[in-house]
Amino acid sequence: MSEQSLTDILSETLLVEEDAIEVQYQEKDRYTFVLGKLAFFLPDEMLSEVVENADYAYLPRMSENVLGLSNIRGDLVPVFDLHNFLNVERDNKEQHLLSIGVGEEAVGVLLDRLPFRVKESECQMIKSAPILPEAIKPFVSQIYKHGEQVILDYQHEALFSSLCQ
Fold first, then answer.
1. Is residue 24 assigned to a domain?
2. Residue-level pLDDT at 15
3. What CATH number does the domain containing 63 carry?
4. Contact 28, 118 (CB under 8 A)
5. How many domains does the chain have?
6. How many CA atoms lie within 13 A of 44 on its CB side?
7. Is residue 10 part of a domain?
8. Which candidate, 140, 100, 146, places its Cα nearest to that of 120?
9. Which residue segment(s) compose the domain that 48 sits in?
10. CA distance 6 to 10
């Protein structure tokens, strides 16, 4: 039985850990939600959930992008109309409320269809998208393509803060 030096053992361990990290990165799934022809990656660091049959109360004198407030798990969550902000038509057949974040940081977004999952490794980074509305451009940090679908990584906090004004 051969004896390995401590350096050899540590080197092998680091190589194995590097390989595991690389595999984990390649297999990372991201959740997206779709509005019109655009999809948006949900922020990795925030909890999200689809709330079925959620009502919201209209608030007078608010921005046209704010639909109202919804009670989600005891928290009053502002509900935003990104369809209006992006100037895309709403498909009234289905309507789901996507809650992004928890507590005071939570926001709600009305969706026409349920969010879906894509493998990040199957997404191709692109420099620009021909269908990108002017209103969203200041908040886009990266643009991807997954098949024919354009997916945006966006600055979540900046976007929703601006929609309240």
1. no
2. 55
3. 2.40.50.180
4. no
5. 1
6. 6
7. no
8. 146
9. 30-163
10. 6
